[in-house]
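Exam review. A common question shows you a sequence with its structure tokens and asks you to describe the fold in words. Practice with the pair below. Do the first one on your own.
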Amino acid sequence: MFTFFLIPALLYMFLIFFFLAGILRLKRVHDPRIKKLSIIVAARNEEKYLPELLDRLLNQNYPEDAYEMIIIDDRSTDETAGIIRKYQQRTSQIRFISIEDYDPVLSGKKKALAVGIDYASNEILVFTDADCLPGRNWLQEINRHFSDQIDFLAGYSPLQIKNGLLSVLKNLERVSLFAVTAGSFGWKWGITCTARNMAYRKSIFNKINGFEGIGQIPSGDDDLLLQKMAGFLRKLTFMFTTTSFVPARDRTEWKIQINQESRRASKWRYYPLPVKAMTLFIFSYYLSIFLAVTLTFFSLLSWQEVITLIILKTVPEFLLLACFLIKVKKCKLLWGFLIAEVIYIPYFIFFAVKGTWGRYSWKD
């Protein structure tokens, strides 16, 4: 019976080392030539956070004539539109667009982004969210990493949380996703990314007809779009430099947290077959770990065998996260690794089930 559990454990270990090797395969990119950039931000009811974002974007360590900002008010009911107009009066860099009606073909944020992309006058499109905090050298880092061969770029976006343990655990969970992003990029395989810190070419977006085919899905303006672009991308890369980070404010309300995680998991059904098969395997493997622990209480597996299975899971995961955290200089997060290991399997299974078959509410 032990062999039944050992085979998927070895396959999972291989998968984790595959991503680890992908991170190591990424080559450092340095192209200092100044390129024209278009920053696109869709904001809906973000009056609380938008001013700080706009201040940061206007104070980038980058030539003013080399970037524009396209800020879209996506059907806000607060003062978001008024805030954008006030900033627009201060500078010609800001282009303001207002979305007033819901579009069932292009759901929510995708409609706003599609209109913004259409307005963009530059080839390189840069994205972040209205509640994010890009540093002063963010555009400089994007410019440096975006060589002539690069078509898609992503970067690290840590969560800003005041609670010590909670901050470590939630950021470790995010780090695992960023490690997969970077690792898959090293193999020219776009699996996932986050719109908080990414850039791609407008010509690629137009070549795949934008969000066509995924426009009706409530989310996926980042990962589903990346997966759709996959066959058209020449090179992908990831920014590890600390000045490229885009911290994001964590939404502390539990209802928002649960809906956010459920929304993320709900996209599984729309993934391409290879990504869907991989995530289904991971889900099945995590269930097998639960089953193995349960069987020890019926003396059908020994504790030594279960410990072996846990080691085969834990050691590769630690090495993958450590590799990524060394590159982004955030190794202090590793102190919460063992706690995260205990929590993550039930966390993953719960939201995988809830996101696929349950209900959630989100901005439409």
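Now try the second one, then compare your answer with the model answer below.
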Amino acid sequence: MARITPLHLIPALIAAASHAGEITVEQKPFSIEKIFNATALPSGDCVLIKLNPLTWADFEILQIADHGNKVAKGDLLIRFDPEVIDKKISDVRSAHAAATLTLAQAEHDFKLLLETAPNKLESIRRAAGIAKEENTYFTQTRRKAAEESAGQSLKRSEQILSNQREELKQLSKMYEADDITEDTEEIILIRQQDAVAAAEFALHMETLEHKRTLDVSLPREAKTLADAERDTAISLQKAEVDIPRSIELKKLEVEALKTAYLREAQTLTELESDRTQFEFKAPANGFFYHGPIENGKWTTGELIKVLIPHGHPPANRSFASFVPESAKLNLISFVDEAAFRALKPEITGIATLAGREDMEIPVKILKLSTSPSTDGSYRADFAVTWPKEINPAAGTTAEIRVISYQQPSAIAVPNKSLSFNAGGWTVEVKLADGNTERRSVKRGRVSKDETEILSGLEVGQVVVVP
């Protein structure tokens, strides 16, 4: 015969059927454990290998030590092919030597130009003054004097001819009076006739000279002197502009050569400086790693692919690392914001290595960043007490566990038992009659599975867990 359930028990039974579980509130230890991965890296003794060229861009690897190699002080880490840069340095050095001579010659020429330019200008000015003076004197005085002189010479020749003719006439009359002309008288008459002929010729020539002087020589000289005055005046005017300009142009030329010389010298200095970066050697005993170890991270990625012979690592960026043998390795982790807020300075914990979980390595927070990195994580540095039998290499990974919060006696409930509404946090408490009700509670710290309850619950109460 079937049993009938009393009506007043049905709600309790329905409520009980919907419950996944129950816990009885009690005082017990409560703690929060944080677990995160970390990497063993040097605390600050790592030497980053980086190309910082001033001008050169072609760094082709000729030889590079293997990744992770243990090296001794002075051992070669990386060498680049210097053939092209050595040729360039030789060319620039030759060009610099030529620029030195060219600049020295230009400076010497400029110095001479400064010394001779005033004298040259003064010479041209003096020539212009003389030409003007000569033309003025000719125009105002000498031409007229030359014309008068030519006229006077012609007049004198005419007078001489007239005198010679008159004398011949008188001699002829005197000798005609005698019946007999003596030989001496004949000679005198012939001589006088020759004198007349010579005077006639002289007059003829003087007439021609007089005409040429007036018609040709003096006009030609007048034009020559006028042209000379004009040309020297133009030369002076041009020199007064050209000479200062030539000085300025020479000065600019010297400055340009000096600039080119300094640039050539700078280029040579930069190339010689860049040439010193074509070989890196170990500064001490230690280990060589491909990829930079900086800011608590060891970066590899695509960069590793070029760290081979004939590869071209990027400039102005670390591409390899040297870790001294004496470098102390700390554990560095990048934690999320929740873990960051749970961690405190000087907090301690343990680290374990994969495959040696039986060995608990003590760790202690050294430094905790106060601001997030670009990916939102926070850096945490842990000092490590490495066991003697462990000699980890840089890059070794570990798992760190720390207790970030603990209470020896607290009330805690499963996280899934809490609900949040407009009134705040609540839990469902089972009543003595089997019914349940929502109770407001004040939440404390939260672990992975449980939440600390600061008020709202008492020991012995039963909390319903969904």
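Model answer, second protein: The CA atoms of residues 5 and 13 lie 10 Å apart. The mean pLDDT is 90. Full marks require stating both points clearly.
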